Amino acid sequence: MRWLIGLASMTGLGLLLSFFDTATDDFTAPFARSEPPIALVAMIGATATAAIMWRAVRDWPDEPARWHNDGPWTVVIVATIWSAIAAALVVAHATSLIEGQRNFPPSRTITYRNVLFGIARASNVARGGARAELQSIGVSVGIAQKDYDFMLGKRSRGPSVVRSAGRFCLRADLQRSGPHFRLTRRSLPRGHVVRCPRVQGRILSVPAR
């Protein structure tokens, strides 16, 4: 029970960190570099949970009957998967926040408001949202379903992937600190997808601290 309470606390911590971890990863230092440590921590946590939970349930009585065959195994498997997810959640968001503080200190970070980024394509995702892949930088950000419908040009169900073909841009805030760049939000509300202006190559934003 203490271990399960610890897993619940770790899950709550991961969700709390995700509330503060809203910016995209640094364009110049892809988050993929942190994936091996995250996977390693998740594996260690899952292994420890499997061992502890099996030790806890192996001596359970055979009654009631539901625990006689599959009950202990179900507890071990669910707790192991839960542990891996909770550990990965905490480490992923903690790593992202630490890297953000290191690469984007407030004293040296400039924010450019309403920068226009060309959209390469957009695709539907679960839970009524969509994602847009930005041209050149290869960054994917979340957009509102209504912005995805705007790209389709209709409100009814459309294809799962829409190619922009230079017609649509994403309006978002960009942060710069030395050689590092990132968007201030990885998921944007409705109204951030617009038609690209015909005039190209001009300054489209004003830097603001």
Characterize the overall form.
elongated
Strand element count: 8
Largest sheet: 8 strands, antiparallel
- Provide the β-strand percentage band: 15-25%
Q: How large is the radius of gyration?
A: 22 Å
Average pLDDT, rounded to a whole number, is 79
Output the structural class.
alpha+beta
**Helix content estimate:** 25-40%
Distance between the termini: 48 Å
Tally the helices.
4
Q: Regions with pLDDT < 50 over 5+ consecutive residues?
A: 200-209
Listing every helix as H and every strand as E from the N terminus to the C terminus, the arrangement reads HHHEEEHEEEEE
Describe the protein:
The chain has 209 residues and is α+β, with helices and mostly antiparallel strands. Strands 1, 2, 3, 4, 5, 6, 7 and 8 form an eight-stranded antiparallel β-sheet that branches. A hairpin with a 2-residue loop joins strand 5 and strand 6. The C terminus is likely disordered.
